[in-house]
Amino acid sequence: MLYIVGIGPGGPEDMTFACRAALDAADLIVGYSVYVELIRPLYPNKRTLYTAMTREVERCRAALDAVYNGETVAVICSGDSGVYGIAGLIYQLSAEYEQTIDIEVIPGVTAALSGAAVLGAPLTHDFAVISLSDLLTPWELIERRLRLAGEGDFCVALYNPSSVKRADYLAKACDILLERKAPDTLCGMVRNIGREGESSRLLTLAELRDTPADMFTTVFVGNAQTRNINGKMVTPRGYEL
Q: Cα–Cα 20 to 30 A to 191, which of 19, 69, 70, 111?
């Protein structure tokens, strides 16, 4: 059996019962090195296999080979393995094997949800989730999606907002959203969600444009109705009060 496991933000208290059951059952835990280190204290005696970022295909093939040879394997992702994770890649690679491999996806709490909970309730109406990383998606397509999300007045959760090589990507995204959204649109940022050093703040879209962020940060952009209620970012659903 191959379990594809979303471990949530990283803390054991944010893992689902199904996640823990899959990790308990696994002979081998496979993942990106940072994620393996996050769960190592829970399973110090488990065999692990890890690789660096950008070696996802190699990692997934190794996991599939282990299952093909009779082991029970858990491939772990932060958040949810089906949201910018490797669930799709594993299914694609599994088609290369002569015999069908039993695969089960174990959902986890993705950053859009865990980060939203830190800020308050920013996603209680329609929202879009967009990654600003152009490693696997052309920037032109990311721009188009941002523009359409702004045009539709969606609340937006932005993953991978900036990195050393993409230092200006969040500013560029804000410029696109500012074509349709007001400069005082309420936004929020959460860094290290569910981990040591977690921090968050509320700010306007205009302020967000000039605010540094990194790959450990998830950014939230509200819609025209989003407001600050006692220090929390809240998007009304439309209930009559």
A: 19
pLDDT at position 69 is: 93
Q: How far is CA 56 from CA 93, 110, 175, 221, in A?
A: 11, 19, 32, 30
Q: Judge contact between 155 and 222, C-beta under 8 A.
A: yes
C-beta separation of 187 from 202 below 8 A: yes
CATH number, residue 152: 3.30.950.10
| Rounded average pLDDT over 126-151 | 97
Does the residue 61 lie in any domain?
yes
Percentages helix, strand, coil for the chain, rounded to the nearest 5?
Answer: 35, 25, 40
Tally of CA atoms within 13 A in the half-sphere of 66 that contains its CB: 24
Does the global pTM surpass 0.90?
yes
pLDDT in tens, 62-106: 999 999 999 999 999 999 999 999 999 999 999 999 889 999 999
Biggest CA–CA distance in the chain, Å, is: 60
Pick the closest to residue 186 from 199, 201, 200, 202 (CA basis): 202
Q: Residue 178: inside a domain, yes or no?
A: yes
